[in-house]
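Progress against Task 2.4 (sequence-to-structure conversion) is shown through the following example record, which the project officer requested during the mid-term review.
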Amino acid sequence: MNKVVLVTGANSGIGLALCERLLSQDTEGLQLCLACRNMRRAQAARSALLTSHPTAQVALLQMDTSSISSIISAAHEVKLRYNRLDYLYLNAGIMPNPQFDVKAFFRGLFSSNIITMFATGEGILTQKDSVTSDGLQDVFATNLFGHFLLIRELEPVLCNAGRTSQLIWTSSSNAHRSAFYHEDIQHQRGTQPYSSSKYASDLLSLALNTHYNKQGLYSSVICPGFVMTSLTYGILPSFPAFLWTLLMPIFWLFWLFKQKPESLDPQVKYHSLTSGLGSNYTQPRKMDIDLETSEVLYEKLLHLESEVRKKLKEKQQ
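Structure tokens generated for the chain above:
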């Protein structure tokens, strides 16, 4: 039986590369669904995949994870098309163009945090968020809440007796506890909405395992590493090009010596890394998360879900 795989944010960057990799491994055994906001780009992505894999089964689904109505409509379509989902890759995401703090940058050059600063931008990049038509913070809605609502909507095809399904979150090395506030889960008052949303996805993955493992649904978190995508290019112009040329070897050396034994611990994030010799490998790292905080976030998301559903129902009346 073919495996059914849905990937959000699949028309470019990591999402498209993931789809290409999946088809390269098992062209005939997959039903692949690309969930994208922009259907013109989605069509181009599908054409590119079919050029490489002419016999592949590649379907398209219009979905904007920042829009409540779009998510509910897309989930309804998925349940009409498929009686099950084996893998749901929660990859769609946005990051506001960061502002570069020059003073913080030079302070960081002489601190013990220099490697983390260059690897993640922590402390030297600030961001301004916007608000969606549903009244939610855009980064929070797109990166986290939209995916949470999608999971809730797709429970009938994700949770079935006698088989397992898997949720896989695209997280980031920029997911920092210091950026997340449980009293402000949308990060309305902060300047690090992207970091907050990625840390929240780490927490949510843990909570989802707590609540759904008995129903055969498991959640994991990955970090793709330093990848040249549209999000990355939004940051790079803030730095002189020669700095990146000089710093790239530091990334490889930093990651090369941090390898740990494989683990199935739900509190582990799997990092995709490259050695100084160009070898790719995966490294599990313990996340800075805890069950209590993950439960607090989960309950707040359930409450917010109830509120947005109520508002949506009132709009439709």
